[in-house]
Amino acid sequence: MSTPEPIKKGQFYFIHDISDHFIMEDKTKLGLEVRERYLDPKYGADCESGIIYDGGGTGHKVGIRWYFPKSTFSLENVVKFAEEMNERYLAIREMTCPDD
What we know:
Elements: E1 8-9, E2 13-18, E3 21-26, E4 36-40, E5 45-53, E6 59-69, H1 75-96
Antiparallel strand pairs: 1-2, 2-3, 3-6, 4-5, 5-6
């Protein structure tokens, strides 16, 4: 399935509109192989996740994209979640690269 053009973009996310779902996609995870799909309790939506390995070789499960059913979530709900994710990444960037 090809993903349609985003209907909303942020610095660290895309939101796509497909028939009965909104998809929130983390731009920092583009290209990461999907390893698992499960119900994410944080958002109450299906999530595709992958594994990122740290410098010590430990794998960490990370969300790649979330599927929000339109019957339960409005676009405004999804944008709110995406903006929260955007703010987390901005805070991390500020801590790790304060001069950028």
